[in-house]
Write a structure and sequence with these properties.
The complex is a heterodimer.
Chain A (H helix, E strand, L loop, with lengths): L1 H6 L10 H11 L10 H10 L22 E5 L7 H10 L5 E5 H6 L20 E3 L6 H16 L3 H5 L1
Parallel strand pairs in A: 1-2, 2-3
Helix pairs in contact in A: 3-6
Chain B lengths: L27 H5 L3 E5 L11 E7 L2 E8 L7 H5 L4 H9 L6 H16 L5 H29 L3 H22 L8 E2 L2 E2 L7 H23 L3 H7 L7 H6 L5 H4 L7 H4 L20 H26 L24 H12 L8 E8 L2 E9 L5 E7 L1 H13 L4 H10 L4 H5 L1
Antiparallel strand pairs in B: 1-2, 2-3, 4-5, 6-7, 7-8
Helix pairs in contact in B: 3-4, 4-5, 5-6, 5-12, 5-15, 6-7, 7-12, 14-15
Classes of the chains: A mainly alpha, B mainly alpha.
Amino acid sequence: MGVISSKLGNLGIVTTTLDEAVNWGRTGAMWPLLFGLACCAIEYMSTQASNYDLSRFGMELNRASPRQADLLIVAGRVSRKMAPVIRQLYDQMAAPKWVISMGDCASCSGVYNNYALVQGVDEIIPVDVYVAGCPPRPEQLIHGILALHEKVRGEHIKEWAS
Amino acid sequence: MVLQTPEKTGEVYKWEGSVEELKGLVTERAITGETMLLNMGPHHPSTHGVLRLLLELDGEEIVSCLPDVGYLHTGIEKNMEHKTYEKCVTLTDRMDYLAPMSNNLAFCLAVEKLVDLDVPERASIIRVICMELTRLNSHLVWLGTHALDMGAMSVFLYCFREREIILEMFEMLSGQRMMSSYIRPGGVWRDIPPEFLPALEKFLDYMPAKIDDYEKLLTNNPLWIDRTQGIGIIEPDVAMAWGVSGPSLRGSGVSWDIRKAMPYSGYEQYDFNVPVGEHGDVYDRFYVRILEMRESVNILNQAVKRLTPAGPFRSDNRKFVPPPRRELGQSMEAVIHHFKLWTEGFSAPDEEVFVAIESPRGELGCYLHGTGGNKPRRVHFKTPSFMHIAALPVMSKNHLIADLVGIIGSVDIVLGDCDR
C-alpha cells in the first residue's frame, strides 16, 4: 500500500492508483449515522464506549444528520411503522454510502416472524454487511466493520460516479 | 453502484392530514397558524430510541407535546401466544433491553403464580443478585445517556466502563451479555459458576468509589444544576394519576417501591432504604437514581452474605422444571420428563394472574392468562416506559425544547419497553 509506506518516513515518490488512495481514505474515517432502534443499539453504544473504542477505526463521530453520514448501521428490529423512516434516512445520505445490518432482527427479523416486523431490512434498503447475533457482541460488530472496510477497498470510484 | 430510489420518497414526513384533525390535542392557536408544529423524532439523537413527539411551539416554548409511540412495535405479546411458557422467557428479554432480567423475573413470577410452583431459597437469592445487577446496569446506561444528552460526554465513557464489568458477570452466569434468559420458571437456568462470586465481590468493592466519581462530575456541578433544577416538575398526585412509577415517582417524593410494598423473591429479608426526592424535577429524579445505585450495592452485599451455602437452584418439581443432566443416563422417568418439557412444555390452568415487580424503570407488571394447555391465552405487560411517555406532556409544558431533552432523559424511557 503505497500511501501508508510514505507515512513511515521514507519520503520518496509514491505511486498508487486513484482507486486505492480514495478507498484508503474512505475506510479511514467512516462516519456512522447516529441511529439506533433496539437492543443492538445498546451493544453499538458499548462498541463506541471505553472498552471497545470504535475511534480506533475513525468512527467515534456519530452524525445525527444523514447528510453528513457515510455509514448506516441498522441496529435493531425494523417495524413496519419505522420502515419508511429508514428508507427516508437512507435516501437522504449522500453517496458513497454503506449499510451494515446489525443483528438477527435487522438481517432476517430473528426470532419474530410476525405481523409487526419487516422480515429483514434488506427488503427496503440494500445491505453491504450482515452481522449475526442477538445482539452481536461488540467484537462481532467490529468484525463486520472490518469486513466492510475490506469490501470498500475493492470498490472502484467509477461505479459510484456513474 | 447506482441505487434506484422509489418514486414515493420524500413523502414520509409529509403530513397527509390537515391541522383540523388535531383539534382538541393542540391549542386553537396552532390551527390558526399562530404557533408552530414541529416534528421531533423518530430519528433524533435524544429521544432514547424511536420516540416521535409532535411539538406545538410558541417561539422556543413548548405549548403542547403529543407523543407518538409504536415505531418499535414488535408483536412480542402476540408471539408469546404461540410459544410454550419456557420459550416465552426468551422473548421477554427483548422487551426492555436495558433490564432483560427484570422482564424474565416478572414473567417467571407470573408463571409460578399461575401453576403454583415453589422456588428454592437459593434461587430467590440468585434472582435478587440478578435484579440488583440489572438495576445497576440499567441505571449506568441511563446516567451515561442522560448526561450525554445534556452535553457531558465523559460520564458516558465512565458509565460504560463499569457496565462492561456487569455484562461480563452476566456472561459468566448465562453465556450471553445482554439477552441472558437466565431466570426460568421454577428458579434459574443453572447454578452460579465458581468464578462468579469472586468477580461480584471484587465489583462490589470497586463500585461505590465509582458512584462517588459520577457524583463528583455532576451532583454539585453548577452547569448540571442549572439545567436540571426546577425543570420538568411533576407534583406527586399528578404523577400518580398518570401512572408514573419507580424512581421517577419517588423523585416527586412518593415513597412507593414494590420491593417494600409487595415484596417478591424475599426482598422483605433485606435491609435497604427507598430514596425519595422532594421537588419532582429532573435533578431529583437524577439524584434518586444515584442513591438507588448505592442501595443496590448495599442489597448485593447482603445477598452475597446470604448465598454461601450450596443448595438447589431450581425447583425439583419435575412436571415443570427439567431434570438435571446427570439423571438422564440413569432414570427413565427423567428422560420422559425431559422429553415432555422440551417438546410439549407444561400446562397451566385456565386462570388469570397479575404480578408486578420493581424494574429499574418502575412498576413492571405481567398479566398472564392460561388456557389449560401448554401455551398462554394472553400475555400482557404493564410497562413503566409507556406510562412515563404518557406523562411527558405534563412535565414538558411551558419548558424550552432544550429542557425537553433533559426531561425525556430523566424519566428513563426505553422504547422497546413501551412498544413491545
